Amino acid sequence: MEKHINDTIIAYLNDPDNQELAQAVESWLNASADNRQLFAVMQQVWESAGQLPQEFSVQEGWESLTAQLGIVAPPPPVAKVKSMYRIWWRVAAVVLPLLVLTGAWYGYHSAGAEWHTFTASKNGIDSVSLEDGSKVILRPGTGITWRLGKSQREVRMQQGEAFLKVAKDAKRAFTVQLPTGTVTVLGTSFNIKATPTYSDVAVWDGRVSVAGSKGQPILLTAGGLAIIDTAGRVSQPTGHYAYRGSWSNRNLRFHEKNLEVVLRTMETIYHIKIAVMDAKLLAFTVSLDVSDVSANEALQILSFTLGTGMKQLSDSTYQLGTAKK
Amino acid sequence: MKDVFPYSPAQVTEAFRNRDIQIFQDLYKAYSEELYLLAHHWVKDSDLAKDIVHNLFVSLWEKADQIIIEGQVKHYLFRAISNRALNELKRRQRHVGEELLQFHADEQSFHHTSDYILFQRELMQHLQGLPPRCREIFLLSRIHGLEPAEIASQLNISLNTVYFQISIALKSLRVALLPKKNF
Asked: Which residues 5-24 of chain A have a CB within 8 Å of chain B?
């Protein structure tokens, strides 16, 4: 009996508009004050639980915070081992002066500079202007930290995708520290995609140097792409990849790219869906370089280039080509 | 259950001045979960709530030398997170609830909301103590909003099992959270 009424209550809590369940619960509630009290508490727990957010890990949150702020949490207290004292003093005698010198050098080059942080909201592309005139456009949820010192400009990025337009400053190199590599530039625009195990850099214009933790750095020019793998090795596939930055500025720059790649990129940039009505079109490669155009205009140019038609079906759906009869 | 944060507002202010990482860590561990729940209470978005908490602590660390905490540390943090939630809602042109506006103006509203957050925190912590399968089914039901039939299908178990596990979870939670009631 208890199981039956428990199931009925849970079914009712899940579906309060169900008249049959409501009547069954109602008659049970009318049977005693205890039932009413029990139900009130169950309902309170049920509704409160329904208001809960997803789980929160304090430990993960703390690790993410310290990683972004570049601070090292003190280790948990450990028992001291007496016999190690002398060894540690000897180590300290060598290491401490080195640390002091390193700190002094580092302090000079980053004097007066503080770390700043910015995270794009989860719901849209966002941008931040740095104090030197550089601009960073970020995909939803991507975060960066930066510090602009007297002789260097440093950015750190752990995960996400960002397009950087770096202001020219010959006296201060601009570096982006990625999980397994570093990008160094003086003034240029480029796109970075970063994950803890893979990063890539595509240059829009200018030149950048990409170094992994292993091997020689690679110098990239406009259209070039460098991939940093999990081991910190850098490789450079052939081809033109400037289009990788198109999402940030609506500048469509494709050089002999397969139509499929062009259409998928446009879908991402404009948040639209494009249906291809004639499969033969997908065999074409496309070169395109247009700036600041709407989705409709871009597809008109594309359809003209391909010698076919296009149609806008709704605010966010288009079709390219004509279905074969 | 509740983490103890033993430092006074003056000690925290001083710790910020000295960039004391240990106290900063203690502060995070003691309050981040409640701040997350409060932020979620205002913005109704788990990811955004996490971001707001993260950015509050980033800001506290970066502006450590300018921060002066007067009144209770918890009150300071609750007001700071609520301000951030309010700004975020305005920035996104989303509706700002009456309760959030009251929270700023009215001490009683502050205490009412604080009690609610404390209850949610205890609920969340008791959920952690449920048997894994029972917890999973309850979370799918209440946090992810799945119907019992959908849970049964997703986990490839019978509908009876789903009802049974939810009733176990409900009983365990009501006994743990409301011990003074007679059941």
From this structure: 6-7, 10-11, 14
Tens of pLDDT, residue by residue over A106-142, are 444 444 467 788 888 776 777 888 888 888 888 888 8
Whether B99 and B114 map to the same domain: the answer is: yes
Domain match, A230 and A284 both:
no
- Which residue range is the domain that position A10 belongs to? 2-50
Residue A274 reports pLDDT greater than 80: yes
Angle (CA) A203-A206-A210 rounded to 5° is: 55
Pick A10's closest partner by Cβ from B119, B167, B183: B167
| Nearest C-alpha in A relative to B89 | A121
- CATH code, domain with B3: 1.10.1740.10
Q: In angstroms, how far is the first alpha carbon of chain B from the final one? A: 23
Q: Cα(A237)–Cα(A224) distance, rounded to whole angstroms?
A: 8
- Which candidate from A6, A38, A71 shows the least CB-CB separation from B21? A71
Per-residue pLDDT tens digits for A221-271: 888 899 998 888 888 888 888 888 877 777 787 877 888 888 888 887 787
Q: What is the pLDDT of residues B114-166, one digit of tens each?
A: 888 888 888 888 888 888 888 889 999 988 888 899 999 988 899 999 998 99
Determine the pLDDT at residue B24.
93
Residue B37 has pLDDT above 90, yes or no: yes
Taking the Cβ of residue A34 and every Cβ of chain B, the question of whether any pair is shorter than 8 Å is answered with: yes
| pLDDT for res B52 | 93
CA distance A105 to chain B (A): 21
Which residue of B33, B55, B141 is in closest CB contact with A58?
Answer: B33
Q: CB-based contact (8 Å) between A32 and chain B?
A: no
A143 closest CA partner among A123, A121, A165: A121
Are A46 and B142 within 8 A, CB to CB? yes
B72 and B36 share one domain: yes
DSSP string of B91-149, one letter each residue: HTTPPPPHHHHHHHH-HHHHHHHHHHHHHHHHHHHHHHTS-HHHHHHHHHHHTS---HH
Which residues have C-beta within 8 Å of that of residue A72, sequence separation ≥ 6?
Answer: A66, B21
Is residue A61 assigned to a domain? Answer: no
A269 domain-assigned: yes
Q: Which domain holds residue B66?
A: 1-128
Helix (H, G, I), strand (E, B) or coil at A174: strand
Separation in Å, CA of B131 to nearest CA in chain A:
16
The total number of residues shown for chain B amounts to 183
Pairwise CB contact (< 8 Å): B174 & A51 = no
Query: B104, B128, B152 — which closes off a domain?
Result: B128
Please tell me whether residues B66 and B107 are part of one structural domain. Answer: yes
Query: What is the average per-residue pLDDT within B91-101?
Result: 75
